[in-house]
Amino acid sequence: MATFWRPGMMPIQLLLTIGVTFLIFVIGHTFIKKTFGRGLPMLAQGALTWLAAFTIFKFVISPPIPSSLLYIYMGLITLVIGLFISANEVSWTESKKPIVDTLIGATPLHRGVRAVAFIALPLGFGWGTYTSIAPPKNFPEPPELRTVHPAPPQAIKVQDKQFTLQTSKNPFRVDVKGEYLDVGKEKEFFASNPFDPNAEGYVKYVKEGGEVFFRNCHFCHGDNLDGRGMFAFAFRPIPANLADPGTIAQLQETFVFWRISKGGMNAPREINPWDSAMPPWEEHLKIDDIWKVALFEYWHTEFFPRTWD
Amino acid sequence: MLTIIKHRKLWATCMLGLFLALSVMLPLVSTMALAEEAQPQAAAAAAVEKGKDVYYKTEGPVSGAGWTEMNENSYPSYSLPYPLSENRVIIWVLAQQHLYFGSFVLAVPIFCMVIELVGLLTRDKVMAKKYDHLAYSFVKISLTAYSVTAILGGLLLFSFITFYPAFFSYIAGLFRPVMHIYALLFLAESGTLYIYYYGWDKMNHGLLKWVHATMGVLLNVFGSVLMMLANSWAAFMMSPAGVDEKGRFLGNMWHLLHTALWNPINVHRIIGNMVFGGGVVGAYAAYKFLSAKTDEDRAYYDWMGYISMFLAVGSLIPLPFAGYWLMREVYGYRQQMGITLMGGLLAWLFIIQAVLIGALFFATDYYLFAGMDRMKGAERYAKSIKYVLFLTAAAFLVWLTPHTLIITPQELKAMGGQQHPVVGNFGVMSAKNGAVNTMLMTTIIAFIIYQRANKQITVKWATWGNAAIVAMFTVALVNNWWVAIYGYYIPANVRVGLSVPQVMGTLTCLFVGTGINIAMMRGAKDMGPVLWGKISVRSQYALFVLGVSFTWLMGLMGYIRSSVRLFWHVMEIGRDNSPWAFTHTIGFAANVMTFNVVLFWTLTLFVFWLGEIGTKVAKAAHAPAHQPAIAGGSK
Q: Which of A188, B221, B342, B451 has the most beta carbons within 10 angstroms of its beta carbon?
């Protein structure tokens, strides 16, 4: 399955997969109706839909999604199917008939099914309860509710300098003339060559930031900034994937500055500081280098830092 | 003779209106005069200390002692078992109940006003009467709720004074004149409400009816201003202004009121109240429907439930936009606050919010589809239901995918990072915008389908009209999705601007789409009347789901809004030094919210029941003479 997924297209691929599956269902069902004169019973349609959704979420998505999310998704699908079946009187009556028939034991066959069900169901629940609470052979660590992006403090002190995070600016986000480049304007430099010996301003600082990165960060964050450096899988959680739209693309430049300066161990409690291998770089780098490497990270990933105006 | 009496009533009403207006104006004028007086005095005594406004950055003469640091003695509490040993939990419950009832009694007059006006403007006599009666039964429900609100308000006030004396005296010191105006407005509102209600039958004809409708408007003006004043206190605590960094008042009342978050909260609350009010009345109608003994009652309450649902969902559609505005202002005010809300400590509560909002959309769609069963001709549209449900479900899937996932360490390893490469992308704003606009649009589609369910369209341009509607929705949806994807590739500030075309698309579909649809209904052949009362019992539970989800949502978002201050009473000015200055766990908070929801609905049932006794007595008294003219609903 892993070969199906193309980086950058994945969410769209998933939605398209779901959409196409749905259309195949609709068309297939129309076809069945045309050829055999009648369609599948509502309940069967519902069951098929449920299975299809489960297959997609459980087996097609790669890497697998966390089970908490799988529960949420399948809960939703179950609900929607229930709504669809019960929304109009005809399908509701039709779908509940086999269930009611079984409950009241309308025919000997139904009575048989009822007997089996009434024995199997409690046993099933019992088994489910047992497996969910019995101590497993090798104890898995419990799921964690970790906040990856905690709220930053109002102001921080880095090497005796005070920074107000709401208002501070990257001093190296400047054009050739030294004027501040508003977020978004750096786009024109995304294609520039930082190794150009005549590069000035933004592009020059990107190169210097890149040097900082490849001396200090790429072991963990990877040379593509995707969090897959050579040491990456020795850590848990693995280093942040800076190329994912869910990390630095969501953050203000000052937030990134804060995270690089203070690292995991000095982060707020929500992040589980003991869990994070990110070093506090204020102890090893100069303030200017921290700003430059932040600049480089945005340049390389072609993301824009968040702004609030 | 009759006309004179009528005129006398008219004059009396006018005088009363004048009196009420004056009673509001007086304190306003006097405070303005006070403010003006303060200026020259300040100029004369040059020695007066100046302070700098924490928000507006203007200078002003310092007055009052400002914030005094609290200690554990500032929070006298009863030695009750936990959690009641925390004063804040008691305040939480009382404030929430007060707010529930408050928003209910603020919202219902808005509906009354609208419905009464619709009744006035309807040319169809039977329908006009029906609407008028509906508006009347709305106020009737809200009347008892009104006194419950007042009682709860009193309880809340006393609890503030006894549990948070130091804090309360600080706030009261700042907002002194506002609090007086508030109390007076409350008086004015009560007076108007009583006349509005008790005068309903008397003021039922000609000009008097219009006076009556005007009083409905007045009632809403009072109610809204009242709420805005109360909002100013909460907004001040979140984003203070008008004071210096020591919390001392700087002489500008307007700055104190007009803080960064005041207006976004005002707008969000007014709309939210309407959604909530519609939800509660809808639940009332469902309750009456389920317990109705006659077909006539069932028909009436089915119709009432439909109208309430319509009002609630109609108000729900602009609510996300008001929410975005509020969140944007929050982020603009303090990045930290925004991240605590959306990405940090409180982010999981936003996932619960997403689930509840999804429940609202599904309940609405479900109700509409179930409602099509009572219309002849609806079979023609049965096929389209699955597409609407599919789109809603797919959008909802994106909508509720959290940014931060709950993962076991093994899963984390398998995923190779905190961000899932496929679904992780659904966790960010751009995807959410696309999703919520999609859900709004599918709900609008459901409405359009519902509108035409029992109609045979006869206008000549039917094909063109249909084509236009389909084209509009297709363009809007595709545009919406494209913008959602494109949003990943651009800076956040540009993206915020980009959400404008998304919203415009949705709103165009709402107004132009339904507009064209209504135009197409002109002269359409009825394939059969709407068989009011012939709706499935299940649909009525959808109405309950709507009502309960709204209540839960309100409790949830109120908690979030309030707890985002973390350890501040007044953001960055007054620290919370109580022994319980920590954020509750999500589980505990959710339990209190649920308790609040249950308590509210229990009290509401009581209010409904009280209304019932009243009607029974009235019915018994009037029985022979008063044959209701409102015949069920089926024509």
A: B342
Cβ partners under 8 Å of residue B231, min gap 6: B262, B265, B266, B269
Instruction: List the single range of A57-61, B311-315, B519-523 with lowest mean pLDDT.
Output: B519-523
B323 in Cβ contact with B503 (< 8 Å)? no
The closest alpha carbon to A300, from A256, A255, A234, A269, belongs to A256
pLDDT, tens only, A64-91: 898 889 999 999 999 999 999 998 888 8
Q: How far is A108 from chain B (nearest CA, A)?
A: 31
Place of tokens 């003339």: A177
Alpha-carbon torsion (A152, A158, A162, A165), positive or negative: negative
Q: Which of A83, A142, A233 sits opposite B408 (nearest CB)?
A: A142
> B63 φ, ψ to 5°?
-140, 150
Please, which residues 452-481 of chain B have a Cβ atom closer than 8 Å to chain A? Answer: none
Classify B290 as helix, strand or coil. Answer: helix
Between chains, do B405 and A69 touch, taking CB under 8 Å as contact? yes
- In three-state secondary structure terms, B56 is coil
- Please compute the mean of the pLDDT values over residues B371-376 and round it to a whole number: 84
Q: Do B411 and A66 touch (CB under 8 A)?
A: yes
Q: Which residues of A touch B411 (CB under 8 A)?
A: 64, 66-67, 143
CA atoms of A291 and A295, how far apart (whole Å): 6
CA distance B324 to chain A (A): 13
How far, in Å, CA of B403 to CA of B420, rounded?
10
The better pLDDT of the pair B83, B4 is held by B83
Residue B50 pLDDT exceeds 50: yes
Helix (H, G, I), strand (E, B) or coil at A194: coil
**Interface contact B414, partner A, CB < 8 A:** yes
d(CA B195, CA B250): 41
Question: How close is the nearest chain A Cα to the Cα of B263, in Å?
Answer: 18
Minimal Cβ distance to A227: which of B334, B401, B417: B417
Q: How far is B360 from chain A (nearest CA, A)?
A: 13
Inspect the interface and report whether the beta carbons of A247 and B419 lie closer than 8 Å.
yes
User: Which CATH fold would you assign to the domain A155-301?
Assistant: Cytochrome Bc1 Complex; Chain D, domain 2 (1.10.760)
pLDDT of residue B630: 39
Q: Give the start-to-end residue ranges of the domains of chain A.
A: 11-104, 155-301
CA distance linking residue B412 with residue B405, whole number of Å: 10
Instruction: Map out the domains of chain B as residue ranges.
Output: 376-527
Q: What is the mean pLDDT of chain B?
A: 84
Q: Which of residues A154 and B584 earns the better pLDDT score?
A: B584
Q: What is the pLDDT of residue A273?
A: 83
pLDDT in tens, B475-500: 989 988 988 888 887 777 777 777 78
Chain segment B73-125, per-residue pLDDT in tens:
889 988 888 888 899 999 999 999 999 999 999 998 988 888 888 888 888 88
Residue B89, min C-alpha distance to chain A (Å): 23
Which spans in B509-585 are helix H?
514-521, 537-563
Q: Is B342 on the interface with A (CB under 8 A)?
A: no
CA–CA distance, A82 with B550 (Å, rounded to integer): 22
pLDDT for B456: 83
Query: Which residues 547-606 of chain B have a CB within 8 Å of chain A?
Result: 572
Q: Which two tokens stand for residue A82?
A: 């229930």
Alpha carbon B123 to its chain's center: 31
What residues of chain A lie within 8 A of the CB of B443, using their CB?
none
All residues of chain B having their beta carbon less than 8 Å from the beta carbon of residue A259 are none
- B358 → chain A, closest CA residue: A76
Q: Maximum Cα–Cα distance for chain B, whole Å?
A: 89
Residues of A in contact with B347 (CB under 8 A): 147
Nearest CA in chain A to B352: A72
